[in-house]
Amino acid sequence: MRPAFERWTKAGKSIAIFSSGSVQAQRNLFANTTAGDLSSFVTGYFDTTTGPKREFESYRTIASALHRGPHEILFISDVAAELDAARAAGMRTALCVRGPESPDNSLTAHPRIRSFAEVA
């Protein structure tokens, strides 16, 4: 994860997190990873106080908070329904496949990645 975060930051990209876990839990997680403290790479944290993860309005709210057009944002998730909502908001999407694909994700049309190394 660290090499991807470093590469994206050097390329001028911002990294934000949208998780079901609280913002504080996210901050704690990224400050204490096996790759060290990654919190300095993260410019925004969003939790479900922003809105449900399966509703497009939540992703529009995030884009606005980041001062970006939705089309400028790549949203990565391992849940197809979240990607559908992000795409409906105008974001680019990628399905992160970790291990065998779940039946829910096998029919999705979202581009697939297996590693952050695949993301420019």
Task: Describe this protein's structure.
The chain is of the alpha/beta class. The protein has a single domain, classed as Rossmann fold (3-Layer(aba) Sandwich), CATH 3.40.50.1000. Helices cover 31% and strands 17% of the residues. It has four helices and five strands. The strands form two sheets. Strands 3-4-5 form a three-stranded parallel sheet, covered by helices on one side. It starts with a helix and ends in a 7-residue tail after the last strand.
Query: What sequence of helices (H) and strands (E) makes up the elements?
Result: HEHEHEHEE
CATH second-level architecture: 3-Layer(aba) Sandwich
Show unreliable segments.
none
Fraction of residues in H or I helices? 25-40%
Beta content comes to 15-25%
The Rg value, from CA coordinates, equals 14 Å
Number of folding domains? 1
| Strand elements, count | 5
Distance between the termini: 13 Å
Walk across the major sheet and give the strand order: 3-4-5
